[in-house]
Amino acid sequence: xxxxxxxxxxxxxxxxxxxxxxxxxxxxxxxxxxxxxxxxxxxxxxxxxxxxxxxxxxxxxxxxxxxxxxxxxxxxxxxxxxxxxxxxxxxxxxxxxxxxxxxxxxxxxxxxxxxxxxxxxxxxxxxxxxxxxxxxxxxxxxxxxxxxxxxxxxxxxxxxxxxxxxxxxxxxxxxxxxxxxxxxxxxxxxxxxxxxxxxxxxxxxxxxxxxxxxxxxxxxxxxxxxxxxxxxxxxxxxxxxxxxxxxxxxxxxxxxxxxxxxxxxxxxxxxxxxxxxxxxxxxxxxxxxxxxxxxxxxxxxxxxxxxxxxxxxxxxxxxxxxxxxxxxxxxxxxxxxxxxxxxxxxxxxxxxxxxxxxxxxxxxxxxxxxxxxxxxxxxxxxxxxxxxxxxxxxxxxxxxxxxxxxxxxxxxxxxxxxxxxxxxxxxxxxxxxxxxxxxxxxxxxxxxxxxxxxxxxxxxxxxxxxxxxxxxxxxxxxxxxxxxxxxxxxxxxxxxxxxxxxxxxxxxxxxxxxxxxxxxxxxxxxxxxxxxxxxxxxxxxxxxxxxxxxxxxxxxxxxxxxxxxxxxxxxxxxxxxxxxxxxxxxxxxxxxxxxxxxxxxxxxxxxxxxxxxxxxxxxxxxxxxxxxxxxxxxxxxxxxxxxxxxxxxxxxxxxxxxxxxxxxxxxxxxxxxxxxxxxxxxxxxxxxxxxxxxxxxxxxxxxxxxxxxxxxxxxxxxxxxxxxxxxxxxxxxxxxxxxxxxxxxxxxxxxxxxxxxxxxxxxxxxxxxxxxxxxxxxxxxxxxxxxxxxxxxxxxxxxxxxxxxxxxxxxxxxxxxxxxxxxxxxxxxxxxxxxxxxxxxxxxxxxxxxxxxxxxxxxxxxxxxxxxxxxxxxxxxxxxxxxxxxxxxxxxxxxxxxxxxxxxxxxxxxxxxxxxxxxxxxxxxxxxxxxxxxxxxxxxxxxxxxxxxxxxxxxxxxxxxxxxxxxxxxxxxxxxxxxxxxxxxxxxxxxxxxxxxxxxxxxxxxxxxxxxxxxxxxxxxxxxxxxxxxxxxxxxxxxx
Length: 1040
Hints:
Helix 13 (346-359) crosses helix 14 (371-382) and helix 17 (429-470) runs antiparallel to helix 20 (530-559). Helix 25 (670-678) links the parallel strand 13 and strand 14. The model is unreliable at 1-14, 103-107, 150-156, 210-241 and 297-302 (pLDDT under 50). It contains 40 helices and 26 strands. Strands 1, 2, 3, 4, 5, 6, 7 and 8 form an 8-stranded mixed sheet that branches. Strands 11-12-10-13-14-9-15 form a 7-stranded parallel sheet, with helices on both faces.
């Protein structure tokens, strides 16, 4: 029985889906970084190698190991170095070496790297040192081959060539036939490579004794981002132009470094895979196992977020409806994906979310791949003024800063934390609940009034129509109250009932009723017959309609004043931000006071403060793992760190944070985010799959072999492809309550509208109003543009762009010297970018370039960035290669390129737009031409920009124009049709009448969206206009 239970437990442990994924991701990362570290062994002085004498044996014979000479001191040094630094370096066994040198160099070979390789280990066995292979399949050095291949601007061609070579990589053992097929294929696909017949021509020396220090830079070094960038660009750096390159049948043992930025990830993925499966339930990763189990069920009910009403967000910054939904969803879900198109406030959403969570006593881990995204969030959080809010972690200087802040905190006492605290800060989350309940009540009242205004208009139409039918009144000539109407209706029933009867009692009843009727209606006489009764009933029905009209008006007055409520709502919304900030400040103050009152926690903070500045890395790691980390989270509830630096900043403990937020997740690989998700109970994944994706150089064949090796089911292979899928792609699958941020504040409408339509199905609300008098989107055709033969470099286009740039800067310096316009220049092609940098530097001084923040680069340069004016040199001309046109139309690159400008985008094109091939670029050029044509038609009066939804709008607009104001009816603001836009300053909404087109959102929501766009909304109702048009105009035009 015990054995069966043990087997069941072991089976559950071994078959955990997360365990398999951790192992799979570990191998993907390990394999991807292998070749990136030795694309050229001579490109890094820390690489060491020893060439083996004689013919290759390990791969050719299929042996379990090969014995090597144990007395060789160089071999012994390699073995010792690899054993001592397993986290930082590893051994590989390489075969078939690529060697070569430049024609300009008289030195020894400048290029050296193995073509086929496998990880290995060295073990001493008596007098021998045995070399053991650590894998079952050979790896191809794709990094080195890619660096050697002639590249154009499209990476796809290189990928296809590599796939052709990967298909013929020999399996073990290598026979002569397999080797011949491999080398023949290599030669056919990369003709410049020679197959060496005389090894002596390319003979290389060992270099074990040449390197003194082996790679000292660690992940916790002063500049993690520089390390990441260095390792990512290594392929470009080591792209050597060689006059002669050959493959030699040499074999060697190589000691090379592990990239420091991935060492921590690899270590933590191994740790996660070794955890008991029950641990995962405490983390955000549990959603993966849950979905894996539920996928075998027929249906799984989904939680309806719209039914959750008891929700009171504490958000100190402006918040859109979609941003609010993110906060609401993570309060009620474990995993939320947030798509953030360009300029939709991803950072602001994260800041609001963190503030809400911290105010409710939660801890948050904010992570992203690059420092810039993390820095922005940390700075904005700390700018809120709450004490010890967000901690920036990762680098050595951050650790020293944390140590200093902990010491400063420990030096304080509770009274110090109360210094300069105003009474207004003594607020709590209940105050926000009361505030939001009051705000909701006001908005509900406003909706009720607007509905009643419409009812009044409809009832008035009924009254007027009935009055025409009724004609002259004979009996009811005064205004009746409801009680009188009911009494007259009762009298009519009595009179009708007694008309057919005779007798004394009937006469008495008629006499009494007639007396009452004459008294109520002030009648001298009333003959009871069918005709008079019929006329009286018509007049009574009309009187009841008039009473209903008065009743609606009374209900309006009773509910409140619509215009005063609007002002109160605006005031409440302004106060909501400061109230949220004060709640946050007070919560942090109380949490810190509670922390400092606990002696045990104070001691733990002292230990952490000292360990952070200790020089002994092992001591720091041990304290992180062994000491209670919770006091640090109480001191700093939000930690901000990059995905590759987290391992040296935080211990790997399950669910230590309540929520993890991963920003720019579209550029984050899945593996580096796995440890982040392990450290949190819930997760919010923010990104945009329509912008730049993450890049991976992992071989497709290797990725597939790992998927198969760990038994990842076919349907999950689609989601878990390390090579092509980002963390955001994965999150979009697992999140059942995904949100798209839909309010865009960055660009003017003409700039962003194409992207909105082409890539986001018109789901984005553009919150900025167009500037009809300015040419926001320009298309400049360079008629004599041509690209150079050897690279996509268009000199005439560069000349046109630089000339226009110079004009812009001169004009801006003349008009706006103290508030300079910022300029960005993009080209899809690297050669064009480099030439633009040279040309711009010749025209503008370094001072002017810095003053106007002139940046020149590809779309990758500007991911997450923006400028007032963007200039795009598309570079293509009539003589451009087809591959160039295909490359520049890649959706992600194209989308980023055209959405960086705030106020103007100027496009330079050297090819007839009508001759462009179908695709994004042709669509974009056509869009620009249509924009120019429509703009001209509006300015010339050919197109009326006014769209009236009812006759009252036209009447009010005409009256306002008579007072010398500019009015646009139906102006598009944030995807909504504003009734009347006056002087481009404020909006007038007309209430009480039917629109030709029905709105799909409530009046208050429409008003809130328009006001978030920067336009104050005023209202005129049909009823008020009927009473006094002048009073309405005086009210809405006052102070305007």
